[in-house]
Automatic annotation (TrEMBL):
SUPFAM superfamilies in the record: Carboxypeptidase regulatory domain-like (SSF49464), Porins (SSF56935)
Any GO CC annotation of this UniProt entry: cell outer membrane
Domain TonB-dependent receptor plug: 122-243
Recorded family membership: Belongs to the TonB-dependent receptor family.
Taxonomic lineage of the native organism: Bacteria, Pseudomonadati, Bacteroidota, Cytophagia, Cytophagales
Pfam family, one: CarbopepD_reg_2
InterPro entries given in the database record: Beta-barrel_TonB_sf (IPR036942), CarboxyPept-like_regulatory (IPR008969), Plug_dom (IPR012910), Plug_dom_sf (IPR037066), TonB-dep_OMP_SusC/RagA (IPR023996), TonB-dep_OMP_SusC/RagA_CS (IPR023997), TonB-dep_rcpt-like (IPR039426)
Name assigned to this protein: TonB-dependent receptor
NCBIfam families reported in the protein's UniProt record: OMP_RagA_SusC, SusC_RagA_signa
UniProt keyword annotations, A-Z: Cell outer membrane, Membrane, Receptor, Signal, Transmembrane, Transmembrane beta strand, Transport
Amino acid sequence: MMKRKLLTLKLLVPALFMVLCTVAFAQDVTVKGKVTSDADGSTLPGVSVLIKGTTQGTITDADGNYSIQVSSNASLLFSFIGFETHEVNVGGRTVIDVALKSDVTELSEVVVTALGVEREKASLAYAVQEVDGDNLTKTGEQNYLGALSGKVAGVQIVNPSAASLGGTVNVRIRGANSISGNSPPLFVVDGIPISNANFSNTYNGRDYGNLAQDINPNDIESISVLKGPAASALYGIRGKNGVILITTKKGSGRKGLGIEYNGQFSFDKVAILPKYQNEYAGGYSQELSQVDGDYVLEYNADESWGPRMDGRLVRHWDSWYPGTSEYGKTRPLAPNPDNVKNFFETGVTQSHNIAINGGNEKTTFRLSYGFTDINGAVPFSEGKKNNASLNLNSSINDKLSVEATVNYANNSYRGRPGFGYTGSYSGWSLINIGPNLNMWTQRQLDYNRLKDYRAPDGTIKTWNITGPGNTTPNFWDNIYYMLENATPYDERDRVIGGVTLNYQLNDVFSLRGVAKTDFYDQRINNRIPTEAKAQDLFYETSRKGIETNYELLLNFNKTFNDISVSGFAGGNILKQKYIGLVGNTVGGLSAPNWFNLEASVDRPFVDNWEINKEIRSIYASASIGYKDMLYLDVTARNDWSSALPASNNSYFYPSAGLSFVFSELISSDILSFGKVRGSFAQVGNDLNAYEINQTYLSGGVYGSSPTFIVRDDFVDPNIKPSLAEAIEVGMELKFFKNRLGLDINYYTQTNEDDIIRINVSGASGYEELTTNGGKIVSKGMELALYGTPIKTSNFTWDVAFNLARNRSTVEDIYGDITAYSILGRRGVDVVLEKGEEWGVLKGSDFLMLDGQPVVRPAASWYHSGDENNLEYLTEDNRVIGNVLPDFTGGLVNTLSFKGFDLSLNLDFQKGGNFHSVTKMYGFGAGQLAETVGLNDNGVSVRDRISDGGGFMVSGVLEDGTPVTGYASGAQHTWNMVGVTGNWIYDASYIKLREVRLGYSLPNQLLANLPFTKVNVAFTVRNAWLIHSNIDGIDPSEITPDASGVSFHEGGGLPGFRTYGFNLRLGF
């Protein structure tokens, strides 16, 4: 690892030295200032500031500030799209503020589209939404995908807990587009398709994050979201689920160097936890037993159905370890209401990013380096991130130019917290946070007493001892010991880079050649120490991936009077290679805590693989415009995939669109811009490499000889890529000189011939058939409304609102199959049912008779001793919910007053359901507040039924006779655990996601300082969960399954609120 880092430094340092040597430092006066709009005084970022008569200059920053070195008698030219060019003579001044006048003839908005092509937004026939890079870093969010929450219509973002150390941010565009529900978009950085692989859930509840997050947010200029097939058709097989286009920042031609610093300090505090009961201690019985005259607890229990915490003196778990200060002593039996909250530490993150840019009339560059240090909220968890990037642009001559980019990322994490509950008391489930704190614990525990985990005799102390005098763990090890010693470690190196050559053949044609690559090396190891209850073990894996793209493109652009014609034709070769190695010890470790595969008692398990895949493509695009009013777009792409059968590996994907800017025919003081658009497109998705190959599989080792087994699945030899066909129509309107805007879109998308695996008769010699099947029709609407209600010389209020609704209906599965289960967890299955919306949740629910739940008498079967219980009967395979939301949206408000700015970002979701294991087992084990209280008799629900206690149960007997009775506390809660429908919750929420209050120093103060910009800000992320239909759990942070489906809250981390301080400096 150290050699790799040294090699990286050896490459970057000389490159930086050569670039800096090309820059001439000016000796003239430095002019600073701010550029604003003369209409309302709003600041203008990105304004070009050129020294007249030269190609030297700069651009204004995000706050409209600029700084440039010039001779005292020079003239400056200020130009910006939508405004008139303005010339100013310096005249020896050092501060020059400029107000630009609007130019109604220059209002074209340019966005980045497929293959990195920039186009005027007015000409597009499909929906594209762009987010400025500065909006991604305002609040210090380390993962730019999380910063997209609520900002793009039709894009659903599921964020991880802040304690997850860079966990996965799941992105879904326009609902479910496949049978499996796994519909991740394609990520493209500066024209380079990159991997967004995700290794989460691959080894027992670790979230290693998705690879797209390796891009430094501070390097992002903008993000364009291509939502539908018409926008992404040029990506062919890979564009079915939409595309996230990332454009990184470039250098600027200027005198001297431009230096920017962005520093963020943030603090994570627990904000959302379940409500716990604080009346009863751990145990199965409310009766205390005695040993040598002292009251003792049921230490072996990991539930809280024990005695009332009334202050009686008892022997706690730590009184049974000889030689300790608590040995033989008693303490009051009292609650610890904040024991879970206090277990978590304050997470502290600091990040520093510095960027240098400059150049001359021929060459520009931008070099940046970012460092992030994370001390996690979970004890013994930490992480470090290093990002470096270099972007060079050079004009070799009037015809030839070259662009070179390289992005390097190194991420390392130790003690990454586990999530989820496996249902076992072994392995890594013993250090997963949810089961330890919310489900299987005792409410009187003081977790601080577990920090000193080693007893005088060297053994490990735990609260869950087998019994008095026997300190062997019954179920659970000491969590602090496990977190410190069963420490998982993972590290990833990533390099994304390439070279682009552009050659201008003549005024009409130009040629572009591209060679770009994406390489990652992910290393993961996990361990179980020798002193743990589970068998000691060491696990290690390495996964490498390299994706290389070669592209050649011929561009053309020509205007014939009122007709403009532009487009391109070209081809691409994509090569993918993945190499993996995995191993773990078997039978334990031969020496205590020797974490090495060589330490395996038995022959270690070792496996390795190599996967190669290639896609060859040709494509073309043409856009014809008439009088900047009517535009016709057509694209075509053909892919040949090595993963498909040779006889069936070529597929053609077309698109066509028409847009009409009708405002060109209207002269109105109200309507500034109006356009209608419509498009049609087809895209697809192919198989993974080797899925069609009927090869033998490794069967392990017999003695010293390897064995192989026959696959139990058969692949249809005529299998083909899935196909998505979409029709999209929309309208874009702007009013009152662009002060108010509306963009509305309607689409219908039919997804057919997905890759499906179905069970077949064993008589065929196989158990599964992999073939094409399924038909899912998605229909939806997207609305974006934005405007500036108030604009004065000192005050501006900008607002942006978006709303999206999508319905995905399963119209066909395969043959006569009407239901198809795609995954399941803890008694809940995600099922596709023909004719129903995608993602039906099915499980057990109350057996009903004439609208009443059916109950029956039951003898005591769970520690209570009560014999007169009533319990609910259940019925399996009932519909209990649906995964997908009814609609999603967001609201962003930005207010600025003089140097102050305030931004508020809110997002929301209506509908959708999820299953909560925290609620289910927390209720069953007596941990939650719902397990205490008084029944209708005014008696504690935990008291005996014979004493008037118990939970009231009402319904009908199996013969229909109405009945009302009671069930003892624990027996009732565990009866309810078996009713999975009772633990399905509404995923609706309204959340104030981000708050930022900032202040920028005015130019009058900056004139006497060595800075061109000084901005300070206070930030809050996850500021306020305004509305939720479930307490103690954040519905917006339900960790997705490996398929990307967020339906199962499996005992995750709590919700955190993050407070931050941000400092931005410009030199």
